[in-house]
Amino acid sequence: MTPARASAGYIPWWLLAGVAGACLLASLVLAGLAAATRTADLPRATATARLVTAPPVTAAAPETPAAAAPTPAPVEPPTATAPPPPAGEVAVGGYVQVTGTGEAGFLNLRAEANLTAPVNYLAIEREVFQVQAGPVSADGFTWWYLVDPATSTRYGWAVQNYLQVVQGP
User: What CATH number does the domain containing 130 carry?
Assistant: First the structure.
């Protein structure tokens, strides 16, 4: 038997090893839970910049009159155009599916029924929601308040043009 240590702060090595092992096991369990409950990454909105340049202006020779520089055609900013609403009548209590989002693949569900309101959730193509309020007319569109029937954390106002009436989930 080994003699007792004189220090009151002595901790046996086997106790330290046991605590370290328990911490390692707990971290592995938490990492496994995090990986199992992780949702798929959502698509992100992308922006495209358009650079418009004018042709260079050249100095005319003194013996010839200056040629007028060609005026570039005005470039109109891109405008978002929504497709026409799909067939079917959207109604409170019914279910709708996100459709017609094109290359983006998602629809913004906004905090309020307008184009400048913050986005609450990005609804992916073919995702189903329940209609809970609406219609509201704003910014030239008809808006409906949608909630994911599986989880209450996915909700917001969406433009009718991207909603197809479907049977319940």
Answer: 2.30.30.40
Work out the end-to-end distance of the chain between its first and last CA atoms, rounded to an integer number of angstroms: 70
Determine the 3-state secondary structure of 138 from DSSP: strand
3-state SS of 108-129? EEECCCCCCCCEEEEEECCCEE
Residue 135 CA: distances (Å) to CA of 88, 131, 146, 155, 164: 14, 10, 11, 15, 15
Domain count, the chain: 1
**pLDDT tens digits along 98-148:** 999 888 889 999 999 999 999 999 999 999 999 999 999 999 999 999 999
Report d(CA 52, CA 74) in Å as an integer: 10
Do 145 and 156 contact (CB within 8 A), yes or no? yes
144: containing domain: 95-166
Burial class (CB in 10 A: 0-12, 13-18, 19+), 157: buried
CA distances from 167 to 41, 88, 128, 149, 161 (A): 27, 11, 9, 13, 18
Q: Which two tokens stand for residue 165?
A: 């009436």
Place of tokens 């029937």: 149
